[in-house]
Amino acid sequence: MIMNKFSDLRRALIFVVVLLFFTQCKTVVKESTINEAEFLDRVYACWLGKNIGGTLGMPFEGKTDVNNLTFYTNIKVGEPAANDDLDLQILWLKAMEDNNCSVDAYTLGEYWLKYVPVDWNEYGVGKTNMRSGIMPPLSGEYNNAKWKTSNGAWIRSEIWACLAPGNPMLAAQFAWNDACVDHGCSEGTFAEIFTATLESAAFIENDRDKLIKFALSMIPGDCRVAIAVNTAVEVKKSGFDWLQAREAVIKVTEDLGWFQAPRNIAFTLIGWLYGDNDFGKSICIAVNCGDDTDCTGATLGSIFGILYGTIIIPEKWRAPIGDGIKTVAVSGFEVPTTLQTLSKKTVATQKKVAEFYKSQLKITSGKTNVSNQSELLNIDKNELSVIWNRSPYQITRNTEDLFFTCDYNGAPEIAEGESKAIKISVGNKTDKEKLISLRLKNIPAGYTVNGMPDGIIKIGPHSKYDVALSLLAATDAKNATFIAEIGDGGKTIDMQLGIIRLSSDESVGSGNNKN
């Protein structure tokens, strides 16, 4: 009897020990961390590299010949060149601060209209569309055949990487919301996803070739950005020099021409591929490729800063331009006057972003430990394909509890005597039933609207409610901006729905091909 009791006790003890062992094994989780002082230095170096590369390249912007630069030319000592590449990122930081770290394309579009006074190229197209009630991503697609492939988006991607370090999927989401405002669902948007995800990954991976390969995996393999980048990489592997790489990139992007994203991203990478990891040599090669030279130099300068911090940037490049910020493309709000201030604000907002999105990477006072970067860079391809395949005709607004979508099912146009089908969807993100109202305001003379529901709409948990609208234009109908309004427990959410009334000699869909 005593031996049996002893055996039972021994088995029980063994069970407890084994249980404790496996319990402990399950709870030992490697936490990815970046030391806060190191992170601040790398963010500062990112912005400093942006100013240095932009100042180097600014005098040669738009020139298509090969340059022969080895240092700054034509600068005002102590000041960087003003550059919209940085300006807009300061505005996006403000948007994140103002909106509890949660912004969508619609919100960023509103910031464009309020704080960006310039109307250059795709900026102007996007703003013109939004003034007509045509909101993102359609604002970047409609009447924008030429500029939606251009450089305006990928040059402003660093803010998303700095707010989502080591979280490239989140950086990709941010980049899409940003780029689609003035580039729709096109190459200009893929370009910003490429740079934002590369820069986000660069906080936890420092191998150049791995970073380029990873960023390529974040965009469609057959898109023009990927083709141009792969061309530069293959020429380098084949042993040819940077001038030959440049010519190969020009040839493969010949139909697009100059001032376009695929070519200029490849020029940026040529500087990286052939620069021997030397900051000055690399940004000079990028700028010496020509064309949008302030953008190529600035982006590569930022990449070096993110990778290595200020130690990679020689004093001879820092001293001539100082620590200041000069703006040219934003107004109406208080802009940080120094890169130090901007960097501290960026780090402070990053902490809030990490908490809001439950980031696996933490900024701490302890040591940097990103030994599990392969896990952080393991991307859900299904989630990625959703980004790639978004419709340019679908406008979405988000709140904490709801999403509100309008699908134009094509160009936002209507001809006399014809109907235009629009689908409105309201989605409930919560675990509880929602009671909402939905109405269409500002219906102008000349339009008839059919299909709007009456009364209160019930939407179950994690469900959505669809409304099929039909607009009919009479002879006296003109361009119009309808307002769709959701009522949710005393709160209202508005969405603008712009409609372009075509003249008798225009056909529906023609605006998509206009420049």
Quaternary class? single chain
Broad shape? globular
In whole angstroms, the N-to-C terminal distance is: 94 Å
- CATH H-level superfamily title of the largest domain: ADP-ribosylation/Crystallin J1
Rg over C-alpha atoms, rounded to the nearest angstrom: 26 Å
Named at the architecture level, the CATH assignment of the largest domain is: Orthogonal Bundle
Stated plainly, the CATH topology of the largest domain is called ADP-ribosylglycohydrolase fold
Strand percentage, roughly? 5-15%
State the domain count. Answer: 2
Counted by DSSP, the helix tally is 19
Q: Main sheet: which strands, in order across?
A: 3-4-6-10-8
Please report the total strand number as a whole number: 12
Structural class: alpha+beta
* Broad CATH class of the largest domain: Mainly Alpha
Give the averaged pLDDT, no decimals.
93
Estimate the helix proportion, in percent: 40-55%
The biggest beta sheet reads: 5 strands, antiparallel
The low-confidence parts are: 1-7, 9-29
